[in-house]
Structure formats: C-alpha cells, structure tokens
Amino acid sequence: MMVELKNVTKIYGTRKAVDNISFSVDKGEIVGFLGPNGAGKTTTMKMITGYMPPTSGTIKIAGYDIVEQPIEAKKHIGYLPETPPLYLDMTVEAYLHFVGGIKGVPAKRRREDVERIMNEVGLLEVRKRLIKNLSRGYRQRVGLAQAIIGDPEVLVLDEPTVGLDPKQIKEIRDIIKKLGGKHTIILSTHILPEVSMVCDRVIIINKGKIVAMDKTENLSIALQNVRRYFIKAEGPYDKVVKTVENIDGVINVEAEIEEDMMVKLTVESSNDRDIRKDVFFAFAKEGLPILELRPLGYSLEEVFLELTTEEESYDEDVRNIKEGA
Amino acid sequence: MKMLEILKKELKSYFFSPAAYVLMGFYLLISGYFFATFVLTTHYAELSPVLGSMVTVFMFVAPILTMRLISEDMKMGTDQLLLTSPVTVFDIVIGKFLSAVFVYFITLVITFIYPLYLKIYSSPDMGPIISGYIGLFLSGIAFISIGLFASSLTENQMVAGVIGFALILVFWVISWLGDVFTGKAKAIFKSLSFFDRLNNFQNGIVNLNDIVFFLSVVIFFIFATIRVIDRKRWS
C-alpha cells in the first residue's frame, strides 16, 4: 500500500472541504481523482503531499504518517500542483538542479538525473531557456519533471492537462502513461475522457465525499447493466405511463409531462433485451403515437453527471455502481 | 544540507538579477558620500559618525532586500514545492535569512575601504571602528530578520516591505517612549532601543549584553517567521 487515507476530514472555518474520506492506492496504480470544481480534489491532494495537515484522520505515504514523520513521507512524494511551482527567473536546468537538491538527490548523481528526466519529459531543447520565456505546455512539462526528480514512488498530479491545447494534452498524457508502471500516480481531473484514457481506477468525489470508487471499466459497465431509452409520446399521462410499465422487461420509468398530451419518458430495461419493438407495438395497440424513441448511451461522462448531480436518484446510482462491482 | 540548497538558490536569484547590485550600489553610493563629505569637512580620522549614518541607510535597504524572500514564494505558488519537499520550515527560513545576511556582509566588506583609507593617510583609533562594524553587522542582521518576518505575513511584496520598514522604525524610536514613562516602563523601552545600543558600539564599547540583545531579536523573528508559515498551513 503506497498511499493510505483513513477518515480524512478537512474543515476550513465552518466549511467541510473534505468529509471523512478513506481510500488506498497500491504500488504502480494510476488512480484518477474525478470531481467537479470545488469538490475537494485539490484539498485532498494538498493533504496527501503534506502541504497542509488534515483536520482529522491519518494519511500514510509508503507507511510513513505525513503529519508525524513529514520528512520521511515527503521523500516518497512528487507533487505537481494545479499551477506548476516554477521559479520563472531560473533556467530549466538550474531549476531542476535546485529541486534535485531539496529533494535530497546526492550531488554526484544530480547532473545525470536531471539529464535523464529532461530527456524523458522532452525538455532537452529548452534546457538553457528561462522558465518565464516558455510556453504553457513546456512549463507544464517542467512541472512534471520537477515532480519526478528523485524518483519518488508516489506522484500526485493536480489537473496536469488543464489549460493546454489538444496536442500538448496528448503529449502530457503520454508521458503520464509512461510513468505509470514505475510510479504510483494519483491524478485529479474534471475531464472524463482523461480518466478512461489514463487511469486504472477512478475515485469520484463530490462535495468532499467519495461517491464512487471502482476500476475504470467497471464504472461504465456497472451502469450499462441497464439499458435506457428516451421516449416521447402523445397521449394522457396516466395511460402512457401505464402502457410502458406493462411492457415486459421494463425496470424503471421516469415520466414527465412536457405540455398538454405530450409525455417524455426515460425507460430502463434489463440489459439482455431490446424493448424498442415491444414499445412500438404496445403504443400502437393503445393508439398512442410515438414521436421519438431512441436508446440512451451510458458514457463515463454521463456516469459522472449522474453521480454528481443532486437528484433523488443519486444514492440509488451509487448503490448500482457498488453492486455492479 | 537542504538549508544550503535554499541558500544557494536565493543567492543566485539575488545576483543573477539586478536586485542585489542595485541595492548594494545604492548603499555604497550613499555611505561613500557620507564618508567623503565627513572626512573632507572635518579632517578627522574617525569613522563612528559615518557608521551611524550607514545604519540609518540600511534601515531603508533591509526591508527592500528581504521583502520578496517569502512573499514571492507564496504568490508564485513555489511554497508548494518547498513545503512538500523533504525540507523543514526551519531550513527554508534559515537559508533565506542567511542569503540576505550574505549580501549585507559582502557590502560591508566592500566598505572596509573607508578605514583602509584612513589607515593609509592617518593613524585612526581602530578600536571604535572595529566595534562600530560589529554593531553595524549585528543591527543589520536584526533588520534582516524583521524584514524576513514581514515577508512571511503577506504575499504582496510592497506590503511586506512597508510592514518591515514600519517594524524596524518601531525598534528605532521605541526609546523615545522611555522618555515619556518613568521607572520600570522606562527601563524596558530603553532596553529595547536599537539606537542606544548602537551608540555603545560606535563609542568602542562592546557589551555582551548588547550582543545578546541583537542576537535575541534575530532568533525571535526567525522563530516568529517559522510560526507564521506553520500557522498558515494549519488554519
């Protein structure tokens, strides 16, 4: 177990930014930390890296408590905050040497370490440039390089691709994937595709609480156990709903009246059957015209929205995911 | 030693930018002017009045020299690098403190030309000159520690500079309060005054008492700085 959080809570004034979070990350895993802005991702990462202590609860890095044995614990962490912590008036090379120094890389090894990392991250061509003259993409790479120096087992990356253009995003993701095998990585993001592209496991957090935690592929499969359809039909509300409910295989119906005699339905059925034909015949038999009928996909994007919107169905969805796991 | 890494880095940012040169140049220009005019008008082979003026000049220079030391890290987010690295806050603060002390020390060494001139062309009493320099150095590092403390209070450099200057000024004029009060209060305010203690040094008197006082000020403000940084993280 490289990273272990137990009942971690952080309170700012009266606001609970992080509320009783517990999870652990194994060696070599890439874990995505997913949540909307203000969910508590950054706060959690700041606590993991020892920038600020939790109000209560314990955090262990490679077995060392981050509050009790900060120096030992911090030796195992590389951290890339939301904005990379760069000294703008230093050259890339001088900056990385300095970071190597404070991370405790022995002076003899420092030169070749910095050399190797600049190569790995793709900074060799700008090594003599002042950081303030670098583009965003390069600055982000310097930030990443800074986190890797000293070969820490755990990398904590806070929104590593935010504010970059698509080409730079791809480059940074590739670098992160390459680092995956060697390092344990905790990566936060509010971009869903990033998680499925890079991470082995996802932790979804909202309002300071963990709402779901599973392997990346399971999360979407869990919700794909049901099929969902959107139906728009004309007719009296009760009759329409009753008709749908009587169809074989329908598990759940949500209906709302759009305007007079117009009903919008979201219908869930079990995964093994396509109810569209049944819907057609049932509605035809009752003389209810269908104006629209289409299957609803369940991309991770929707999983995410589902999990983090504040609706009644919220708890149920979480349960679905946990059961599906 | 991690503290040395911080020190080296801070020295680089002083000397690889115009900051140190402009401040040192300003300080040397003014003190050179004091020295030249003093010697030319009085023809005395002594340095005490000049050293006294140099303390005053450093009262202005110290807050500017130290204002960015910690505030800049907070503003640029580089404190996140320092505080999540295996380095203690103590090492960070001491490293930064020593970098400013080093710049000040180098500047003082350059001013050794003044007594050297006196020595070449006359025969000055070296006692008060040496003790004067000791006082100059001790008061200077006290100013630096105060400036460093001010820098930890805010991420705005200008504000840090102003607070630093105000605090130094308080220590400078606090003995005036001694004249207002009598008895114990008078003694306390008088003993906190930089001014009176510096007079001793300039008159050739080196009291252990005075040395301990300045070092205590330094230690007090360094620990206050560490506390402020820690407080910020715990709040």
TrEMBL record, chain A:
Keywords: ATP-binding, Nucleotide-binding, Transport. One of its GO terms (molecular function) is ATP hydrolysis activity. InterPro entries: AAA+_ATPase, ABC_transporter-like_ATP-bd, P-loop_NTPase. SMART domains: AAA (SM00382). Pfam families: ABC_tran. Residues 3-232 form the ABC transporter domain. PROSITE patterns: ABC_TRANSPORTER_2 (PS50893). Belongs to the ABC transporter superfamily. This is ABC-2 type transport system ATP-binding protein.
UniProtKB/TrEMBL annotation, chain B:
It is a multi-pass membrane protein. GO terms for cellular component: plasma membrane. InterPro entries: ABC-2_transporter_component. The chain crosses the membrane at residues 21-44, 50-71, 92-117, 129-151, 158-177, 211-229. It holds the Pfam family ABC2_membrane_2. Its main location: membrane. The keyword Cytoplasm does not apply. Keywords: Cell membrane, Membrane, Transmembrane, Transmembrane helix. The keyword Membrane applies. One of its GO terms (molecular function) is ABC-type transporter activity. It is found in: Cell membrane. Signal peptide: none annotated. This is ABC-2 type transport system permease protein.
